[in-house]
Amino acid sequence: MTRDLDDLMAAALAARERTLPGLPEDATAWTATVARVRRRRRARHTATTVSALAVAGLVAGAGWLGVTAKEHPAPAVPPPSVTSTPTSAPAVPTPASPTVGAVLTSPGVPDARPLDAAVLAGTGPGWVVATYWPARDGSDGPVPATPAVLVVSPTGERYRAHALPPGIVPRVLSWRSGAAQVRVEVVPTDPRVAASLPGATTTGTLDLLTGALTTDQVNPPDGATYVATTPAGVELWSDGTALRAFPPSGAPRDLGATAASTAFLVSPDGSLVAQTTDDATGVYLFHVDGGPRTEVRTGVTDGACQAVAWHDATSLLVSCFDFTGGGGVLDWNPRLELVTTSGDTTPLGRLRAGAPFPVRPFGTYVSDGVVATAGAALSPAVATADACATGAYLLQGSAATLLQGAGSRHDTFFRLAAVGGTVYVESSHDCAAADAPAVLTAHRVGTGASVVLAPAPAADGGARWVAGLASWVVGGAVG
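C-alpha cells predicted for Lipoprotein LpqB beta-propeller domain-containing protein:
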C-alpha cells in the first residue's frame, strides 16, 4: 500500500498528540495504541531487512478483507461511544444518508454515488471494498483529509459507503460480497475513543449502509498482525512468534511458532498456511484445523528459497538461488521450483536475463498451475534477491507474461490478489520509499482487458497528494 497505512497512522497520531493540551487521567489505551502502531512499523521494517537475507517478503493479509481509513484530528467534543456485543444499537451517531443518485465528492477521494441496499445486494465475487485515507504533503508530515469507504464493481463503478464514525480508523479485515457488515480492526485516533475500547487491538463490524460500529470479543494479542480470513470464516493472526486461529465460534487455536518473516500464504481451500522458514531452506505448513505444524524442505543446501504462492491445492511455487560468493542474482542460479506438501520437489528451470525473479510481497494463486507475482526482471543491475519490482507477472510453468509494468509513474511495488480469473494489482512507489498514492487495477486473465478500480487522488491545485488508497479487499479472495 503506497504510503503504508501504519506510516500514515503514526504521523497522524503524532499530530494528534501535539493538538491535545492534556490526555485524560486514564490514557493507558491511547498510549498502547500509539506504542502498537510504532511497534508494528519497526517490526515491518525489521521484516523487510530480514527478507534481504532470507529472500522473504512482506505480505499484509489480503483475504476477503481489506480497507482502512483515517481523518483529521478530532475536534474537542465529547467522544463517540463504541458499542460492544451483544448490544445492537448503533455505536455512534451517523449523519443522514445522502440523496440517492447524487454524485458524492470530497478532496482526495474518487467521485462516487451513494451506496444503497439494492446496489449492495447485487455485489458478487470480484467486487472490491476500498478505503481512502487521502493526505497532502505538509511541512510537518502528511496532512490527512476526510477518509471514505468505497464499494467498487469489477468494471469500475464506484459507490460510497456511509460516513465513518469520528475518532477511529477501521482497518477492514474481511467481507463477503453482498453483506452490509465488514469485519474491521478498530484503531482509535482520539485518546477518549481509545479509553472506551476493550483492548489495544480491538475487532468488530462496520455497517456499510449505516456507519454503525460494533466491537466484539475476538481481541487478538496486542500488536498482532492480521493474516487472512479463510472461506470457513476463521480469522488468522500472528503476533510475530506464533500463528493463531480465531474461529467463528469456540476458543482460539495456537497453530504453532512462526518464522520472523511476516509473509504468509493461505492455500486455495483455506486449510493450510505456508511460511518460509527463517533459514530459507524450507516451508512451514500451519494446519488451520489445529493439527501440528509441519515442515517441508526445498532441497537447497547452500542457498535460499522463498515460497511465492500456492500453485495448486498441494504444491507451492518457490523461487531459489545459490550462494556463489559474488556477482548479482543472474550469477546465483536463479530458478523456480515446485514443492509439494509431502516434500517432493520439481525444478521448473533456471531463470535467464529478462525473466522476472519473484520479489516482495510475492504472489497469489490464480488457478491451478497459474500464479501471479511481483517480480524484478533479471539483469546485471539486479544485485540482490530483494530488489524492487519492475512489474506484476503471470507465471505458468516457466513461462512469464507481464500483467502490469512500472508505467509512467515508475511504480516499484505491486501487491496482488486474484478472484475468478481476474488479478488485482495495487501499484505504488513503496519499495523506493517514495510518497505517492497507490492505484488499484484489475486485469482479466486471457483477454488483456484491464480497468482502474481505485485511482490516485485527482490534482486539485492544492499541495500534492502523498496518499489516497489505504487498503482494499476483493470479495471472495483468500489470504
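The mean pLDDT is 79.
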